[in-house]
Amino acid sequence: MRTSLRLLLALVVAASAYFSLNATLTAAETRRPNILYFYVDDMGWGSIGPNGQATRKARNLPYVRTPNLDRLAAQGINFTRGYGCHVCSPSRSSQQSGFHQGHTFADRNDRDNARKAMRADDILIGDALSAAGYVTGYWGKWGYGGSADQNDPVIDNVQTLPTSHGYQHVLAELHHVRAHTFFQPTLWSAPAPDSATGGLQLVANSLTRYQNHADYPNTPALQDHADYPDSAYCDDAYAFAALDFVRAHGENYNETGQPFFGLLAVQIPHAPFGEIAVLPNWDQAYDQDPHYDSLDDQTRQWAAMVTRIDAHFGNILTALEDPDNDGDTTDSIAENTLVIFQSDNGGPSGNNNRELDANGGLRGSKGKIQEGGIRVPLLMRWPAKITADSVIKAGTDCNMVVDITDLLPTFCELAGAPIPLGIDGVSIAATLRGSGRQRKREFIIHEAGNGQSIIRGDYKLVRSGKSSGKSFTLELYNLDADRAEQNDIAATHPKLVTELEKLLLGERVAEPKGFANTYHHWTGKNGGNTSDPDNWSDYIYANAGITYMTENGAPHRSWTARIENSGAQSNTARADADMEFLGLEIRGNQKENAEQFLVLGRGTCLTGRNETRVASNATLSVDGGTVSSLRWIDIHAGGTLNGSGSIDSTVYNNGMIIVTDDHQPGFNVSADYHQSARATLNLSLNGKMQPSFLVTGDATLSGTLIVTTGKDFQPAPSQTYTVLTANRIIGTFSNPGREIIATDGTRFTVHYTESAVTLSVQ
């Protein structure tokens, strides 16, 4: 199935390139940004200046020095409500796949590194961006696919390697336990000859190639000290590889316009802490600190680690300003490079947390479901878009909730690539650009060893282990008023607790280890029923002769599924019973102009929990049924929703909606409706005086309005006809002169009130 998914991804990228890069973006934005992602391991929320260390400095308390991260924050946005996961493997899996722990396969740290995979079918950041034309690099802790052997490690699972998921330039460690030293003798590198090792080769972990110190200014001393270890402190090697990549491809960006994506996923400041003391001048940044000698050894080592990697970040940021390193910054690419800094999870308990408040006063620590375990530092800088005059101003804090699952869809949107179907993350590209429509996500969820949580707005529900008299303990906190989770308010909000628990369990957080979403596609013939298991592909996740997971039968709510027509003739699938998916896409064959239809019968319900997507050359026909989602129905350019019925979700219309039933209202949308400038809404008008399109939430209007008159419609010059109502009308349709000529030739003038669209006969 992997080959077909890769082909599909490439075809979708190619088919949507014009739409994505020329229709969605303005002319100034068609040069796609470079993306540089700094990712650290176990660095608590309070470990950076704006989250507490600057205050400690001002109060003359011991603090950790991160001058380059502080500069990044001053020039960008500090997201104070950024979230990772509780430990490293699920955080990396959620980051790469866009699925949270209830849906990603690697939802915990599993000792079986071959099993704990990001599977061949998962479309990861590297897959999406390389298919979109980015050159891609990954350096650091990957954590999947290789054995734990300190000497002579082997590849255990090729399908989960970075090189199997679009990463072209790699220097990495493949096993998270092997990464529990900074002096492993070898690392995995790419590009390399194709082989059974998945395009990776073992290389010595040495800094020999970086001994020309003049090329690496402001770097912790290397060549000047004969006592630097033969095996490199691996984060030095990762950082230098990333620096070389940025220099080379920064120059290429200026010459060819090809953007790059680079992810530097260092092991700092994960234990072991004491290994940094082997390095020459390891704590020289703290020579003048009067507090330093009084701190615990572990605290001093931790602080030195953080400051060391901060220096490497500074070198790479400098390379953005001067890619060819000649002292002339006219070749700077910093303006159009999005830089992200983030930790995978909260910081561990320990002396550094006690003495430096590394978790910023949050309750709990790494591995816990409390904020100290899952809330992480998150900075973003993009000088071309994040400025002193932008919507979210440079140098400020932002309390928008941003989850680690949001990075993949954000990068896809910025790259003009399709966002993988049904993922849990939501793109924040509109927020970063300061333009466009920011889609809303109702909640985020997390799992940990001591429970699960759901965060919706200011409220966080924690569901933890069994206790006397109850199956589970449910705690509720208002994070706006109680960031440290000291005041459980569950007893005074019983309805909210019940509502949030239902949502949380619906996200599959209580499923056993190894549960995940599965991938399926329609195999039925024209006219086939969706309830027939024979009309759907089976799913198997296996490696090295071991089958870890299978899924078959009729659709389930953990399915990511496609009903796609790959032939030359139109095809119809009939929903003869209720069906539920995590994500569903309906897609026709654009090349052959062959349509794909999904017909939803009267009284039948289709649920795409995260998303139902109607893509090009596809039609979702609703005959009095219900289409439901917790998030949205997405109608792409060339896609059509027609008929009548209930739409229990937000609707994003970039294609066409046609009301075809004389029984009004035609469609009743229970949330918001958004219509883009290229979309069409075709409403029916007959003898009845009811509107054919009812929106419970807000209706944001643009694009074209078409009116179809029924056979019993008799125009009355003095009559006003209401065709659309909403809680609030935002914008207008773009019909010239606000005039519409209906299908029977009647001329109407369109009028807008705060809550309705009406027509009057001219």
Explain this structure:
Strand 18 and strand 19 (546-551) form a beta hairpin. Helix 6 runs parallel beside helix 7 (297-321). Helices cover 18% and strands 29% of the residues. It is globular and about 95 Å long. Residues 1-29 have low confidence and may be disordered. The protein folds into three domains: 2-446, Alkaline Phosphatase, subunit A; 450-506, Arylsulfatase, C-terminal domain; 518-761. The longest helix is centred in the middle third of the chain and has 25 residues, at 297-321. The protein is of the alpha/beta class and 762 residues long.
Radius of gyration: 27 Å
CATH class of the largest domain: Alpha Beta
Please tally the β strands and state the result: 38
How many H/I helical runs?
A: 12
CATH-defined fold name of the largest domain: Alkaline Phosphatase, subunit A
Classification by helices and strands:
alpha/beta
CATH architecture of the largest domain: 3-Layer(aba) Sandwich
Average pLDDT, rounded to a whole number, is 91
Contiguous low-pLDDT stretches (5 residues minimum) are 1-29
